[in-house]
Design brief:
The complex is a heterodimer of chains A (174) and B (214). Helices cover 75% and strands 0% of the residues of chain A. Chain A has 8 helices and no strands. The longest helix of chain B is centred in the C-terminal third of the chain and has 26 residues.
Chain lengths: 174, 214
Amino acid sequence: MRRAQDGDRRAYESLLAEVAALLRAFARARLRRADWLEDVVQETLLSIHRDRHTYDPARPFLPWMYAIARHRLADFVEKQRRRREIEDAAGRRSEELVAPHPFAERGTASGLLRRALAALSIRQLEVIRMLKVEGLTVAEISRETGLSHSTVKVTAHRGYKTLRKLILGTTHGD
Amino acid sequence: MGTEELIRSLASGLAPVRRLPAAGSRTLRWGTCALACVCIGVRAFGPRSDLSRKMQDPAYLRELTLLLAMSLVSAWTAFSLGIPGEGRGRGGGALAIAASLAWTALVVVHPAAATGAASGWPCVLRMACLGLVPAAAALSMVRRAAPLLPGWTGSFAVFSAACLALLGSRVLCGKDDPGHLLLWHFVPLVVSAFAGIHLGRLLLARPDRPVANG
């Protein structure tokens, strides 16, 4: 991690690969749902990346890493619980409002996509629009928005994940 | 995006980062600046008229020293809580509560003439003025770290600034009556600790914070 803090990309990639294996084992022992495993690992890797400046090379790495992992895991589980509650409440409400028509917008692809896009933050929407609609590269977006390369990639990644979860979750649920 | 792809993407965009200095050195840096701010504030408001006599009083000096120690311990706890895996929050919390009780005991035990039921709002306002910049500085320094418990961290950060403000207010306010000190100086300190919890949750929560890059 010390080398990663100094900007050594190769050392960082191999460190993250090792960390991902440790995180998988850590999360597997604590999660009831196997399909959340990779999400938790990825969220934790993103946090480790974001907070890497707080690691003190004079101290052992693992307590630092597991502290982040523990909090990310608890955060993730809580977020899923809240999301489920919101979706249940929204589902009940939309059933009350539009239940009579089986082909209402609720089930169509455009309605689904619109609802999923509404769940993204403004920054995520903007970055995904620039990447996928305008066809800009990460470097161009970085120049235009003033965000760093990593922030652009991470923002897009989080946006994709939210979209995937909402669209696939709804499709599977239907 | 798969995990392997994410790892490659994070590694390819890696930039060197400036390491966060140790909690001790950040505490010293913050303490020096915050104390300077409080001194400027005290000078601006004008110290109590009997200050030179009070500076000869060991009980008064003990009280000021205790407040300074409380402030530094709380700041150090806040900065430690900003580093994942440090886990000194519980010890720092216990120390801060013990020091607050010790300060209360010092104030209550020390004999002083009662000043009646005069309003102490000017003291509260002066404390708020003295603590504003140190609190903002502490929160902004903690924000650069990675506080996993934003509420607790915010509380310690604001409490440390409030302790310094209380110290300053003791140099400003000429009333040594325990009733006045507890109601108009100590209660704001406790309130600031609770306000710090909310401020911490508001300002230090992690999810939407940007990725560190140099």
